[in-house]
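Pilot study result, target chain (610 residues):
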Amino acid sequence: TVSDDGDPTAYHDDLPGALAVSIASRDSQESDNNAETPLMQHKGGKTVGGRKAESGWTIAESERNALQQKQLKATLDVAAVAASAKLVARIMMDRSYWVISPRVYYMRWWDYVTMVLLLFTSIVTPVEVAFIPTAINLLFFINRTVDFCFCVDIVLNFFVAVPDPVDGLLIFHHPTVIRMYLRGWFTIDVISILPFDLVSIMFDNEAVSKLKILRVMRLLRLMKLLRILRAGRIFQRLETQFTIDYSLLEMVKFGVLALICSHWMACAFGLVADLEDAEFNWMKFTSFRVYHESGKLGEGEDPRGIVPPMEIYVAAVYWSTMTMSTIGYGDIVPSTCLERVFVALAMLFGAFIYGYIIGAVSNIIATRNAKINRFYQLMSELNAFLEEGKFKPDLRVRLREYFKYRLSGGDVEAHTELLKQMSPALRAEITMSMNTWITKVDFFRQCPEALVIQITMRINQQTFPPQEKILVPGDWCDKMYMVRKGIVICRKKILTTGQVFCVECLYKEGKVAYSAHAVTFAEIYWFDRMMLLEAMYYFPDMKRHFQMLSLRRLFHDEVMSYAKAVNTLLEQGAAASLADQMDERPQFYLYKLRLIYGKDGAGLRDDRRQ
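Predicted structure:
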C-alpha cells in the first residue's frame, strides 16, 4: 500500500505512534536489504545487474542468498505484526471504572496496615506453633481478625491496577487485572489464610492431641508465613512514594534478617522437641533454676505446663543467638540424635548468615562513606601541600574551611549525569523546577524548554569563601552568574539563592565597572556567552531574537556613553576627562565631540542654546 504520490511511508501517519515507527522501521530495513541483495551470475567476470560479478559466484549461490533475504523479510514481518497487534490490544483495553490506582492515599494507608499485619504474622505464628498450645483465647480472636484483614486484601487485589511487566505502566483493564492476579499470587494468598489451627481445637482432647499425625499437622499452621511474600509487592508500591536512603535501608534489612533468623531458629528448635516427643530432649535438661529451687520442676522433667511458654521461648532465643554469633556457652545442648542433626544444620546456617551479614554491612559502610573517604584523602593531600609550602597559619585555616564547606555542597557534575539519564519530559520538568533563576532573565522567559535544558546541562559551578571578590572593576567578563547558595553583594545589592548578576555580559562582553563579592560561603553557577551561542546553534529563531536583544543592549550602552561624554564636556569644559572610566566608549565620544565642537565644547553650548 502506498500513498497517491507514491510515498510508501505516508500511510503510517494514521496509525498510533509506536505502531507507525515499528512498521516504518521494518520498511526501512526491507529497502536496505533489497538494495544490498546481490542478484548476479558468473559470466566470465562480466557485469550483471549493474554490478561486476566476482569469481566464484554461481546461480545456486545467488538463489540461496535471495532465499535468505526472503526469510529475513518474513521474520521482520512477523515481528512487526506481533508488536503491532500487542500495541493495538493495549490501546483497545479500556480503563475500568472499578479499578483503582495503587498510588491513591487510602491504598497507601492500607499498605501500612498490611505491613504491620505481616510483621505480626512473622513473629507470633512461629511462637504459637512451637510453644503455645492452641485454645480459644484472646490470641485466637486476634488471629481471626488478622485472617479477615488478609481476606479483605485478597478481594482488594482484584480491583487494584497492576504494572505491566514489559513497560511498567499501570493496567486498569479489569479483566486483565483479574486474570493476572489469578495466575500470580492468588493461590499463595488463599493458602496463607486457611485456618489450620481450627484442626487442633476440633481435637482438643488429651489422648487424641498426642497422636503423631496431629502434631505434624500443626506444621500446616506455618503456611501463614507465606503471607510474608506480600511484603515485596507492598514495598514496590511504597518505594517510589518516599525518599529512601538505600544504604540505610540495607542496614535495616540486614538487622531485621538477623533478628528474624534468630527468632525462627529458636522456634524451630522448640518445634523439633515437640514433634519428636522423646523421653529426653533439650527442654528437660535446660536449667530453669527458679522452678527447680521451688520444687515445682524436677530434674529431667518436661517444663511444658509448668514453666510459662514465653520463658521456654526466651531460652530457645538465647540458644539461637549464641549459635548464630558462634559463641556457644554450652548450657543448652541437644539430647537426641534428631536434635543434634538439627543443631548441626543450624550452626552451618547461622555461620553463613553471620558471615554474610558482616561482609555485606562492611561493604555498605564503605560505600556509604565514599564521599567522606574522598574528603579525608583530599584533606591529607592538602595538609601535605600546606606543610611543603610553609604557608601562614591563617591561610591554612581558610583553606581547610573552604574544602570542608565544599564537602557539604552540591555536586553539579553528579546532578548533570542524573539529568542525562532521564527521559526528555522528566528532564524538562526537573530543569524548569530547579532553575527558578530563568524567570529573572528576560531572554530566557521566551526560550523553549529544549534550549533551557541545553544551557543547564553545560552550567558550571564555583565556590567562593567569605569576603572573596568575584568581580572587581576592570575585569573582562563574558559570563552570567547565579547564586545557588549563600549571600553575594553586587552593585550595593544583596543577592541570595536564585538571583542573578552580570546578565548584560551575555549580550555584550567587556570590562565591568562594578564589583561583586561573597559575604558568606557562596556556591555560584555560571555559563559564558560562547556557551550560550553554541546552545542556540539548533535554535535559529532564538538566535535571531538574541541578536536583536544584543543590538538593543549595544544601542542602549552607546547612547548612555554618548550622554555621559556630552554632560562631562558641558560641565568641565577643557578639563573634561573620562580616561579613568572602565568603559572606553565615553572617552571615545568625548574625543569625537572635541573634534567637532572644540576642546572646551563651546560649539556644543552654542548648539544647545540655539
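One observation from the pilot: Residues 59-92 form the longest helix (34 residues). A full batch analysis is planned for the follow-on phase.
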